[in-house]
Structures are given as C-alpha cells and as structure tokens.
Amino acid sequence: MTTPPDVESLALLVAIDETGSLGAAGRRFAMSQPAVSKRLRTMERRLGVRLVDRSTRGSTLTEAGNLVAGWAARVLDDFGTLLAGVEALRRDQAATLTVAASMTIAEHLLPGWILEVRRRTPGLHVGLKVANSTEVAELVRIRAAQVGFIESPDPMPRLRSRVVAHDRLVLVVAPGHSWATRRQPVRAHDLARVSLISREPGSGTREAGERAITAHGLTPRSPALELGSSTAVRNSVRTGAGPALLSEHVVAGDLATGMLVEVPTAGLELTRDLRAIWRHDTVPEGPATLLGNIATEFGERTGVRGT
C-alpha cells in the first residue's frame, strides 16, 4: 500500500514545479539543496514513482513528477480550506464575524468561502456555528450569528435573505439496490411509495426532498431512518439501507468511485436555493457582505450560480 507523503513534502514538490529548480524551492523553505533532494527521495520511495530526473546539469521534474505536483497543488488547496474551516470552528467569542451554516453548506462550501474572505481581509477572525437550517435561522434571529447560510425553501420570519447559489439533490442508492439498474426514471409517485433514508426535521435537505413530492399532491412516507447529518445518510445508503435524496456535493465522490449509483428522476423539482440570511432589522455590511459576495462568486465558478 502506498504511504502518503506529508504536507510539507507536497508543498516542496509544488514549489519545485513553480520555480523550476530544487535550489529555488529550497530557498523558499529555508532548506539546503541536499535536504531538498533527501526529502524528494523519501517521497519517491513512499509513492513508488520517480519524480525527478537527476543529472550533472541539475535536476528536473519527470513527467510523472509534473503530474503529481499538479495533484499536490489541489490537495494543498483543500488542506488550506480544511484549516480555515477548523479555525473558524475554534473561534467564537473572539470572532469579528460569526457565521452560522447548515450542515451541507458548512461541510462542502463554507470553508472555501471563509478562506477567500480571510485572504481578502487579513486579520479577520471568523467564528462558525453549524446546525440544521431551522436552527441556523434561530441563531441569526437571536444575534448569535451575524449572517447565516441555509438551504431551506420556506420563508423565515424576521429574517431577510438573498440567493447566493443553487444546489441539486440527487437520488442515490447502493449498487446492489433494485433501482441501481432501473431503466425508467423515478417519478414523484414512486418516491411517495418508499421510505427514504432522511435527515432530521428542520433540515433543508429533508424539506426540499419532501417538497418535491408534495408538489404533486402526494404525501411522503415516514423515513426509514432519520439521521443528523448528510454524511450519516450517505453512509447508510452505502450499506444498502435504502435510497436517499442528497446534495450532489455530498455524494460526488461516491458516485465517481461507484460506491453509490445516481438514479435518474423525472418530473421532480430537485434544484434548491442556497441563501444568505440576516435579521430583518439589520443590513449586512463589511465582512458579512464580502462573504455573501464571495459565495456568489464561487457559485458562478462552479455552475451553482445564485441570482
């Protein structure tokens, strides 16, 4: 089994790719060229791939090294996003901007938004509270957060909102489920007859899924399981416990690896708005406004654009 390299080694490889030489990359990290070479040899042994061509004229990345450096750059971006999210969770009382977000947004979108807002506003301290959409709305109402991000389609009393992006729910099953090879798309009446694996009441994901069924005058069946996070729902579906409607962000990796299968649907409105919310008697300003604008920018880049 391949032993993954450490983050510092990945950063060094990316620096070699960017600067074109081991010496220049070493200077960026205050490392001697022999130390850089030693780190690279260790990484080559761990990965089982030759990353550098060494000759009397110098050392350059191999074709494989260039590929790995490109992948490493994406890993480092994701790692920076992870650190931004964790730091926001740690900060609370000292936060300059406190944000509340629903589980799906907090897990898959918000850390990247926070990383960008902090890049544009050095020294900004961001605190993060994670809850379902109903609870996020209450946190904003009681001023425990200056701005919130939710997926709920329902009007929120004493709150104003702005659409920053869109999301799509997808119907997923385990590969062994009977729907995994279904040829006809699933329609509202099909969904109304089954018990889905679902989030808890108050979840924006659950509300959007139920609304897609009730829009046809049908009543959804009680869930087979109610779980407190989309990740828990996804994991239950993977075990074969039943189908679920989940954000495409949540299941993208499992669909790519074949751990889950997307079931085609027809006649169901499964696109939902992602909204920034704030108290009706306030106007977002400063970092709160910037964060909302960044959310919209990210939506435009990824094709989940808000209006």
UniProtKB/TrEMBL annotation:
Record-level Gene Ontology MF annotations: DNA-binding transcription factor activity; transcription cis-regulatory region binding
Pfam families reported in the protein's UniProt record: HTH_1, LysR_substrate
Start and end residues of each HTH lysR-type domain: 5-62
UniProt-listed InterPro entries: LysR_HTH_N, LysR_subst-bd, WH-like_DNA-bd_sf, WH_DNA-bd_sf
Keywords assigned: DNA-binding, Transcription, Transcription regulation
PANTHER family on file: HTH-TYPE TRANSCRIPTIONAL REGULATOR, HTH-TYPE TRANSCRIPTIONAL REGULATOR CYSL
Name of the featured protein: DNA-binding transcriptional regulator, LysR family
